[in-house]
Amino acid sequence: MSNISVLLPTAATSDPDGLQRAHRSITEQTIPPAEIILVTNQPLTEDIETTISGLVNTHSATEHEHFPDAQGLGGVLQEGLKRCSEPFVARMDADDISHPERFAAQLPVLTETESDIVGSHLAEFREDSETPERTREVPISHGEISEWMPWRCPLNHPTTMFDREVVLNVGGYRDFPMMEDWDLWARCLAAGLQFRNIDQILVRAKINNLGDRRGGVDYAKAEIQMARRLRELGIASRRDTLQHLCLRIPPRLLSSNTREVIYQTFVR
């Protein structure tokens, strides 16, 4: 066992088979975590509730925490983060698969360097996890990550592992719909925390139609709110804000098919 907690939010719409696969990829790590915290804030379907109960009953390190009053993904992640008892927290989603060496690669970065938050590249697949369709590559060094932060989220959220205490000290997660992770990383950067991405694919994520999921007026509004937040934190200049809005708002308002093409071409 290790000094790692895994924080894994689960929704009513999560696929039971996908959740079991995600959980198995955690328990089969070469450095297994001390605990796996499954967090929910929605009424669950019978299938997903049965799956969660089975994982809790058959794996002693797995717990299920339900927070019905938590607001949105940010709210349930914050409650789950406070519930984690280990000094380092690894994020995953219910449709992700972690490489067996993921924790072995990330933990030394947090314990042997000045980095507080570490992520990696992420591969996306639709049906066969062994044949991903594309890779969401991210900048590696702290300097490169800082350069991306004003106009593009520089970490793949489900790949991250971080120092629990320092992240809680900057306020942790907030209810910031569709931008929970970028909001958190921006506040961490403004507080002087150190970032790094490992130049490897350590997580594979199942996707559906990203054009539908990443578009619409609500997403455009979230981009505007995020741009405003980056300015308030002193991270983004006026030029950064203009670049952010010009590059990211128009695709949100296009048709889903067009957004899918753009996403596949430019990756996020």
Describe this structure in words.
This protein is α/β, with parallel strands linked by helices. The chain has two domains: 4-207, Spore Coat Polysaccharide Biosynthesis Protein SpsA, Chain A (Alpha-Beta Complex); 209-268, no CATH class. Helices cover 44% and strands 19% of the residues. Strands 1, 2, 3, 4, 5, 6, 7, 8 and 9 form a nine-stranded mixed sheet that branches. Helix 9 (217-232) runs antiparallel to helix 10. The relative contact order is 0.14. The model has no long low-confidence stretch (mean pLDDT 92).
What is the topological layout?
Blueprint: E1 4-9, H1 16-27, E2 35-40, H2 46-58, E3 62-66, H3 72-83, E4 88-91, E5 96-98, H4 102-112, E6 117-125, E7 134-136, H5 142-148, E8 161-163, H6 164-169, H7 180-190, E9 195-206, H8 210-213, H9 217-232, H10 238-252, H11 256-266
Parallel strand pairs: 1-2, 1-4, 2-3, 6-9
Antiparallel strand pairs: 4-8, 5-9, 6-7, 6-8
Helix pairs in contact: 1-2, 9-10
Q: What portion of the residues fall into strands of 2 or more residues?
A: 15-25%
Please give the share of residues in helix: 40-55%
Rg estimate, integer Å: 18 Å
User: Structural class from helices and strands?
Assistant: alpha/beta
Task: Kindly report the oligomeric state of this protein.
Answer: single chain
Distance between the termini: 35 Å
Taking the sheet with the most strands, its summary is: 9 strands, mixed
Let me know the number of strands: 9
Low-confidence stretches: none
What is the CATH H-level superfamily of the largest domain?
A: Spore Coat Polysaccharide Biosynthesis Protein SpsA, Chain A
**From N to C, what is the helix and strand string?**
EHEHEHEEHEEHEHHEHHHH
What's the CATH architecture of the largest domain? Alpha-Beta Complex
* Count of individual helical segments: 11
So what's the overall shape?
globular
CATH C-level class of the largest domain is Alpha Beta
Compute the number of structural domains. Answer: 2
Average pLDDT works out at 92
CATH topology of the largest domain: Spore Coat Polysaccharide Biosynthesis Protein SpsA, Chain A
